[in-house]
Amino acid sequence: MLVMDDKAEVLTTTDRAFHSERQTFPEPSIVRLSYYVKVPYEARVALNRRAVFVRDGHRCQYCNAPAENLDHVVPRSKGGAHTWENVVAACRPCNARKMDHFLHETNMRLRRPPRAPRERIWILAAVGSVRSDWEPYLRAETAAYAPSLSA
Ligand SMILES: [Zn+2]
To answer: Average pLDDT over the chain, rounded to whole?
Structure first.
């Protein structure tokens, strides 16, 4: 464990604890790495349905109705990539209406340009909620992406 190896420092803890045979450790809530350990992978969040829905607040990015599908803004059949910048949550009617058209061939508009999410959204996708004691450590700019955390 990083904390036991002195590679990391516990900044805040939860009210739970881990127990070993001889010792009790408070459960860390926030841990700061004491030195650069290793970036585990390219700092892009994995694209999946749940994460896209969380990013988009479970709303259709064309009409704001509850989203049910993923839509490729540039259709896959026309070379559109399966990337954060080209995938949005969409309701079934919008998804069906758009079909294999380019956006400019329709009268539909995106409510905001799709972007790769930052760390907050990664946390949401990974653990489902952001603890209040994590807030000061998250960049303010990510707050714009925080939907009501009903997800
Ligand atoms: Zn829609």
So the answer is: 77
